Amino acid sequence: MDGRISVAYLQSYIKSKDHHPELAKDYFLKLAEETGELARAMHKGLRPRSSEEFRGTVDEELWDVIYFALAIANCYGIDMESVIPQKEAFNNIRYPGPAPFELDR
Could you write out the three-class secondary structure of 31-96? Predict the structure, then answer.
């Protein structure tokens, strides 16, 4: 790692502040809502020009989508750092590309 945020840390962080497995369907509904908000921000080309203009931007909405996707993974006890390389190996068979997936990056 290069000092950046890992998927494992994000999952742990989200779980420590917002973990209610009984609300998995509600997390999904929120994910769907945030996906729509992301689409709207993308359509409008909204990007923050300053920290005061962060609300409703592609940046903010993308984080909301990631947040709720990881909250759902937590509800099901899914370790995304284990799933990602497995899914990438499967995808590379079906859709080979020039950039190999590398662990510990």
Answer: HHHHHHHHHHHHHHCCCCCCHHHCCCCHHHHHHHHHHHHHHHHHHCCCCHHHHHHHHHHHHHHHCC
Alpha-carbon distance of 98 to 51, in angstroms, equals: 36
> What value, to the nearest 5°, has the Cα angle with vertex 24 and ends 21 and 40?
140
Q: Phi/psi at 98 (nearest 5 deg)?
A: -75, -20
Q: Give the pLDDT confidence of 18-58 residue by residue, as tens digits.
A: 999 999 999 999 999 999 999 999 999 888 777 667 788 99
Q: In terms of pTM, does the model score above 0.90?
A: no
Confidence (pLDDT) at 2: 60
How far is the CA of 98 from the CAs of 14, 45, 84, 92, 104, in angstroms?
33, 29, 18, 10, 19
